[in-house]
Amino acid sequence: MTGKKRKTSVRWVGRILLGLVVLVAVGVGVIYATGNGSFLKITYAMIFASPELPFDPDDAVAPPDYADPSNWAALPVRDDLADMVPEGVNTTVVQGTAPVDVFFIHPTGFLKGSSWTCSMDPDTSTEENTRWMMANQASAFNGCCNVYAPRYRQASIYVYVSREPGLRDRVLGFAYQDVARAFDYFLENSNEGRPFVIASHSQGTHHGVRLLKEKIDGTALAERLVAAYIIGGRVAMSHFESMQDVGLCDSPTELGCAVSWDTFSEAVIDKGQPDLAGNVCTNPLTWRLDGGLAGKEQHVGAVPISGEFQLDILGDDAARGIVFEPLAKPIPNHVRAQCRDGVLYVSDQTDTEFGGGAGSRGGRGIYHGLDYPIFHMDIRENVQLRVATYLEQAALAEP
Fold it and tell me: What residue spans define the domains of the chain?
């Protein structure tokens, strides 16, 4: 057997063994990954469709130029899906004129095994997933702020299930470089010294936490941080132990701090999973850290999902022509919520309009894809309140 054939055989044997490990570990041939999927059927894909190892940064496409508007998923100077407002909700904010900006870092939409990082091709299902994030996540901030959301060479979903030592950190670290450059460009060319909000989800939250640590905490920028909504990333409280300026919010009006949660069905309380003890849990019905049970009467409102998030991890990455309808009317008093051991538990959604939403259905009660839609109006109103509080305090501080 030649050296090349021997390496190929070893690689395929490794893939088959890895697939068997995954199959045994989850028992039903599915595994929870990250991004906006809840349970992805990946056993076959892990054997036959994952990217080749190892990760080589030189194989990635050229870094995006953030002076080019096409490398932004949302900008206040153009119409895009981040401008969507739920039916019946009034907003006086005109994009590009708000006194505060939001820098939104989108989660994983690249679910293919063609490479470890996405191609940045705008005519792909990956890009349609990014548009889903603008419509159903970033849009929650357009009532307070000018919305900026960079596209970046995001890591493939496969980094979250790879057993290659250190690969996840290497690929995510590579993707973070784009996010950091986009943030620098935003500050130097767009922000004009305004206060700002950091917002994110899932993979975006991984980058958002690092951005808080490396670019904001301990700098003059901390004084301009209204708040950070770093949601759905299983954020450990220990991240904030080393920060001197950015802490964890424990009230609806606290400033310069961060909120985070990971949403699960209350049907799985006390069933042995998930193990998120030590993670940040903010209750978005009360905005208290580790907040106890809050009833449905405290829920401002969920917003039904627009468009389809594409969970197909096999096949090509061609665009599917997904249509995004206007955001529907909010549904108030829809869920109760409580934090327990680092988890946000909410009313079970199996028999509701959210039961088939991206990331909402599957074993173990994971509502990862609903972290934003279920609390859209709560986020919208709270960020407006924090912005108003910030601007009032800034006005009082003026000589």
Answer: 57-397
